[in-house]
Amino acid sequence: MANDARSIRRFLSAIPAHCPVDSLDYLHLLNWPASLPHPLEFLTEHGFSGTLSAGRISVAQQAEPYLNRLSTIVVSDHPSDNKPSNGTLLELPQGRTAALMTIQAGLDALTPNARLWLFGNRDTGIMRIAKSFSNVETVFYKGHYRLLSLSTESQCLDTGFEEQRKKLAKSDFFHHMTVKGLSLATLPGTFSWQEPDSASLMLLETIQAQQEIKGPVLDWGCGCGLLGLSLAMTDQQLEVTLADDQWSAIRSTERAIQLNDQLGLSERCTVIAENGIGPKLSGSRFRTVITNPPFHRGNRMDRETTNLFIQQVSSAMHLKGTLWLVGNQFLNYTPLLEAAFKVVSKPAENERFCVWQAQGVRLNKSRY
């Protein structure tokens, strides 16, 4: 990580020499990790005073120390928050469809003669993206990181993407699917946006095999809302809170609630945009918490987010509450769960995934 941080620092420090950062309106960050040097550290020193458009609550929070140098910080999955831009610097999203969609949205928002600047490392597919649009200039590269420049004349050369984009545009760019009678709407870039995740389905089936699910329920890292909304659909009395850090996940879950309005989900389901167990969730008393937690952030492995969640989730749970968690076998959450809960078991597992059930919160004196 240290070498990676040094490489990123060298790359970020070189951007102002090649990009007119003092005239940019927007910087759009989606998955930037807190452990790495922040782009605003270098951009604000060279005159950037525009708006940070953050794709996650956590990304917005990381930028708060620079707020006095910025116009504002907004949470949005659009590069310029759906507003015209005289210039946007964009972190390349993870996933080809999400990347192409976001780049095209950024281009569509540019004013005449403005430019879209795009940066990312080789692992995010930036070299392939450079070949996917016309009128693209590779401005410079250092190590695995590249800065590209696109104009208002740039067009996507992927004919398959154009067909997909037109199809998604008919439904406000949501992809629609039905899972076990539940209508879902997902945005590109949201976890498992084209089909339900097999680990989530395994967790859902394991939970639903129980005789009774005690509410209120928290679906943490809800993604498109598959887990929490499925439980709410099955039990008409259940109150469910669905929380996620990613803004596209929040939008997807809210749209799913609207699509299933005939089930009365809007009256019993609450959607919260929050990073981890923050002030909105902490102090709650959920009797059941369910999660298929993330272990990637963009293209980077990220185990810290889930590790911290397991350590903090007790602050949002009833003392006799139950945590249901599914994950890859190699992640082995057992030691962390045993440190936070009195009883930990594995009610279901296969070669790839394991479902953990953790019951009885261990007392934390600082909580009382």
CATH architecture of the largest domain: 3-Layer(aba) Sandwich
Q: List the domain count as a whole number.
A: 2
Strand order of the largest sheet: 3-2-1-4-5-7-6
CATH topology call of the largest domain: Rossmann fold
Largest sheet: 7 strands, mixed
Provide a count of the helices.
Answer: 12
The fourth-level CATH homologous superfamily of the largest domain is Vaccinia Virus protein VP39
* Binned strand content: 25-35%
Distance between the termini: 38 Å
Could you say which structural class the secondary elements and strand pairing correspond to?
A: alpha/beta
Instruction: Sketch the topology as an H/E string, one letter per element.
Output: HEHEHEEHEHEEHEEHEHEHHEEEEHEHEE
As residue ranges, the low-confidence spans are none
Question: Could you tell me the radius of gyration in angstroms?
Answer: 21 Å
The percentage helix is 25-40%
Rough outline:
globular
Report what the structure shows.
With 368 residues, this protein is an alpha/beta fold. It folds into two domains: 2-159, Vaccinia Virus protein VP39 (Rossmann fold, 3-Layer(aba) Sandwich), CATH 3.40.50.150; 195-367, Rossmann fold (3-Layer(aba) Sandwich). The chain contains twelve helices and 18 strands. The strands form four sheets. The chain has a seven-stranded mixed β-sheet. It has a seven-stranded mixed β-sheet with strand order 12-11-10-13-16-18-17. The two termini are 38 Å apart.
